[in-house]
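In this supplementary section we document a worked example of the pipeline. Step one takes a protein sequence of length 188 as its only input; no multiple sequence alignment statistics are reported here. Step two produces a three-dimensional model, which step three serialises into structure tokens for compact storage. The input and output of this example are shown verbatim.
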Amino acid sequence: MALTPYDRLTVVLYRTGLAVAAAAELGLVALAAAGRAGGPLATGLMLAACGGIALGILFVHLYLRRFRQILRGLLAAAAAGLAAVAALSGDPLAGYLASPWGALAGGLWVACHAALCLKEAYCFRLLSGVAAAVVAPAVVLAQVGGTGEPRVRLAGALLFAALAAWVAVRKLLQPMGYDIGDKSAYEP
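The serialised model returned by step three reads:
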């Protein structure tokens, strides 16, 4: 079945979202490793990661409408958490890092990204997607609980970002038609 211009647009937006989110997350980890986890550059990267994840969730090609609704609900909760943290702290990234509640709100974004990685793992047998989905909760829980040495938490964040980046690279290399699949099975 031929791809329509709309199909191509949504595939490009979805894949762009995956790539931007992963690149921004790698940038955030690099800044944190350099001791520069705050400031406008870090906040910009965090917002880019959130924007990329939102693009991915909004344009993901899932046949089952219920799964799309669940992902969009998770995205709405993540956006509400971002707004609350930004309102309370004035700086979303600093707010995420300053408290367990902030880390939990940030964890909703990680959960969204992990869900996209898991979707890719399920649909295209990408083991890196499974690994990212397994690593993500451990990273969030360690940050929320403040457990473990900061270098270990940073290494976990790097592992998640690297796995998500590998999923994005693999996705970018696939033919566009793979994203769309069998349109007759798609639930509106």
